[in-house]
Design a protein that fits this description.
The chain has seven helices and two strands, in the order αββαααααα. It is mainly alpha-helical and about 170 residues long. The relative contact order is 0.08.
Length: about 170
């Protein structure tokens, strides 16, 4: 991998969004801080950070900037749609993460946020498989269902099979 100057690439280095001297070479793979296998590199997080725009788009600064604006707007529309779906029927969180995935094709901050989210989900999945946690969750579920059954039994004993909005109609 070679580090090229911003002028030679015809790009002001704006495709990584980090400002820490990570510059993609001809392959589009950022070089610099991530080469040591740290969190910005490929060892821990998988794919290298930076723009995944086609090479011909990255070569032209105005074209790349318009590409980034378009990716941001499409991602923003998808995220807003997901936020709208949160209180309404629909897969709100899935759509929000889809929008983040769209942003992650171009912006380092979104790539880092998705890596953090994936790590936390994997940790939560591992924790859920712990036998003590599973026993605790099962115990809490049994207690909750017992309370619901007790309240339902009390209601049936007190009012019978009468709907709540017809209790006082005699």
């Amino acid at each position: 991998m070679t580090v090229r100057s911003d002028e030679a690439r015809g790009d002001a280095g704006g495709n990584t969004g980090t400002g820490d001297g990570i510059v993609p070479d001809d392959t589009g793979v950022p070089t610099g801080a991530g080469d040591e296998g740290g969190p910005e590199g490929g060892a821990e997080g998988g794919k290298p950070l930076g723009s995944r725009a086609p090479r011909f788009i990255r070569r032209s600064r105005p074209l790349h900037l318009s590409w980034q604006v378009a990716v941001f707007l499409v991602g923003l529309a998808v995220v807003v749609l997901g936020v709208i779906m949160l209180p309404l029927p629909g897969p709100g969180w899935v759509v929000i993460f889809l929008g983040m995935g769209i942003w992650a094709t171009e912006f380092v901050w979104a790539q880092l946020a998705l890596r953090w989210t994936r790590r936390k989900v994997a940790e939560a999945a591992q924790k859920a498989l712990d036998p003590r946690v599973r026993r605790r969750n099962l115990t809490l579920t049994v207690i909750g269902l017992t309370l619901i059954a007790a309240l339902g039994g009390w209601y049936l004993w007190k009012y019978g099979l009468v709907m709540p909005w017809k209790i006082h109609e005699d």
